[in-house]
C-alpha cells in the first residue's frame, strides 16, 4: 500500500511457479518479478527488461490452472499491509479497513475479527490473497465479498496509471467481475478497502454452519468463523497436502421452467431458489450423480469427499485437469441438460 519509491526487484530467469499455484503444477515462467510496492507496479510500463513480453499476474495462484510453461514475465504480487482507515456513519455506521493485495485472505479475515470488526467471518479459510478476492468475487456460506466491498486501487499495466474502482465499476457477479472479463490481464490490483458494518447481524442459516453451531450456545462472529473453518476443513482438502483450486465449477443457475422439468426427472435434485426466481443447482450433486466422485485421469482426480473439487494426486498436469473437467461437463450435460462453467482461469 506504500506510495514511496522502491527499487525495482530482481528479474528472476526460468522461475518455477510450483509454489505460486495451489494445484502445485510444475510449470515455469521465462522470467518473474516479485512486486512489493505500488511504485514498482507503476514502473513496469517503463521497465526495458520486460518490454514487449507477455505478463501474468499471480497472487496466491488459488484460482488458476496453468497448463504449460509461460513464455513471459510472471508478476508475483507481494504488496502487504493492513490498517483501519476510517469510519462512515450512513447505514448504521461501518469501519473501513484496507489491505495490500498480497495479504493472505484468511489471515486478513482473522485480523479484522481481532480488531472487533466482524463482517467477513463467513469467508474464512478461502485460499488466496486479498487482491484476488474481488477478481473472483469470492463467496461462501451465504455471503459474497462484494457485499463488504468499498473500493480498490489498481495499476493499468500498459500505462502505469493508477485507478480506483468502486463497486459499480467492478461489475461484480456470481464468481465474476470486470477483472475476469473486459479488464482481464489489463490491471494489477494493489490494495482493497472493505466496509464492515457496525450494525452487524449473523449469517448462520446455511445448513452446514448451523449444524456446526448447534450446542455451542453462540452465534457471534468468532463462533461463525470457527464453524466455517471446521466445516471447510471437514469437507475440502488442504491444497498444501493435496493440490487443488477449491470449487472447480460454478453452481449453475437455471430458469424455474427448466428446473421444474429437471425435477420431474430427478426429484431429489439439490437446489436453491434465487431472489429473481431462477434456481441455483448444486454442481457437486450433479457431478456426484454422474458417478465422478473419486475417479481420475492420470494424476488428476475428483476428490473422494467433495465432487466439486478437482485435485492433483501427484504428478498431474494442467492439461489432465482440463481433460477431466471436460469429461465431467459432457456427462452432466448429457444427463441433466445443464452446462457447467469452470471457476478457475485456465492458461
Concise structural overview:
This protein is of the alpha+beta class and 347 residues long. The chain is built from 9 helices and 20 strands. The chain is globular, with a radius of gyration of 21 Å.
Describe the structure.
Its cofactor is FAD. Residues 25-199 form the FAD-binding PCMH-type domain. Cell wall formation. Pathway: Cell wall biogenesis; peptidoglycan biosynthesis. This protein has 347 residues and is of the alpha+beta class. It folds into three domains: 12-77, Uridine Diphospho-n-acetylenolpyruvylglucosamine Reductase, domain 2; 82-197, Uridine Diphospho-n-acetylenolpyruvylglucosamine Reductase, domain 3; 243-346, UDP-N-acetylenolpyruvoylglucosamine reductase, C-terminal domain (Uridine Diphospho-n-acetylenolpyruvylglucosamine Reductase, domain 1, Alpha-Beta Complex), CATH 3.90.78. Helix content is 24%, strand content 27%. It contains nine helices and 20 strands. The chain has helices at residues 38-43, 105-114, 132-136, 167-170, 207-213, 221-235, 256-265, 283-289, 318-336, and strands at 12-16, 28-35, 55-58, 64-65, 70-77, 82-88, 94-100, 139-140, 143-144, 149-156, 162-166, 187-197, 243-247, 253-254, 271-273, 279-281, 296-297, 300-302, 309-312, 345-346. The strands form six sheets. It has a five-stranded antiparallel beta sheet with strand order 6-7-12-10-11. It has a four-stranded mixed beta sheet with strand order 1-2-5-3. It has a four-stranded antiparallel beta sheet with strand order 13-19-18-17, with helices on one face. Helix 5 (207-213) packs across helix 6 (221-235).
Amino acid at each position: 500500500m506504500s506510495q514511496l519509491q522502491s527499487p525495482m526487484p530482481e528479474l528472476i530467469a526460468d522461475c518455477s511457479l510450483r509454489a505460486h499455484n495451489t494445484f502445485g503444477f510444475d510449470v515455469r515462467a521465462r522470467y518473474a518479478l516479485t512486486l512489493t510496492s505500488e511504485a514498482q507496479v507503476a514502473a513496469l510500463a517503463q521497465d526495458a527488461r520486460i518490454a514487449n513480453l507477455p505478463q501474468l499476474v499471480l497472487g496466491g495462484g488459488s484460482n488458476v490452472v496453468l497448463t504449460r510453461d509461460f513464455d513471459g514475465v510472471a508478476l508475483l504480487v507481494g504488496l502487504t499491509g493492513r490498517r483501519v482507515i476510517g469510519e462512515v456513519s450512513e447505514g448504521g455506521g461501518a469501519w473501513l479497513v484496507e489491505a495490500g493485495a498480497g495479504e493472505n485472505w484468511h489471515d486478513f479475515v482473522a485480523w479484522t475479527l481481532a480488531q472487533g470488526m466482524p463482517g467477513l467471518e463467513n469467508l474464512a479459510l478461502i485460499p488466496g490473497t486479498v487482491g484476488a478476492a474481488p477478481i473472483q468475487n469470492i463467496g461462501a456460506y451465504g455471503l459474497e465479498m462484494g457485499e463488504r466491498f468499498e473500493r480498490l486501487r489498481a495499476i493499468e499495466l500498459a500505462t502505469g496509471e493508477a485507478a480506483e474502482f468502486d463497486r459499480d465499476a467492478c461489475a461484480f457477479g456470481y464468481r465474476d467481475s470486470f477483472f475476469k472479463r473486459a479488464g482481464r490481464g489489463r490491471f494489477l490490483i494493489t490494495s482493497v478497502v472493505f466496509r464492515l458494518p457496525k450494525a452487524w447481524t449473523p449469517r448462520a442459516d446455511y445448513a452446514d454452519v448451523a449444524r456446526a453451531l448447534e450446542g455451542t450456545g453462540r452465534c457471534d462472529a468468532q463462533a461463525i468463523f470457527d464453524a466455517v473453518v471446521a466445516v471447510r476443513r471437514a469437507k475440502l482438502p488442504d491444497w498444501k497436502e493435496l493440490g487443488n483450486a477449491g470449487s472447480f465449477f460454478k453452481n449453475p443457475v437455471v430458469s424455474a421452467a427448466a428446473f421444474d422439468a429437471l425435477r420431474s426427472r430427478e426429484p431429489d435434485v439439490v437446489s436453491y431458489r434465487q431472489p429473481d426466481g431462477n434456481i441455483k443447482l448444486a454442481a457437486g450433486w450433479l457431478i456426484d450423480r454422474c458417478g465422478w466422485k473419486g475417479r481420475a485421469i492420470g494424476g488428476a482426480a475428483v476428490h473422494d469427499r467433495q465432487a466439486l473439487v478437482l485435485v492433483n494426486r501427484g504428478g498431474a498436469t494442467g492439461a489432465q485437469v482440463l481433460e477431466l473437467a471436460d469429461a465431467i461437463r459432457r456427462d452432466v450435460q448429457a444427463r441433466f441438460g445443464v452446462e457447467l462453467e469452470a471457476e478457475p482461469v485456465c492458461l
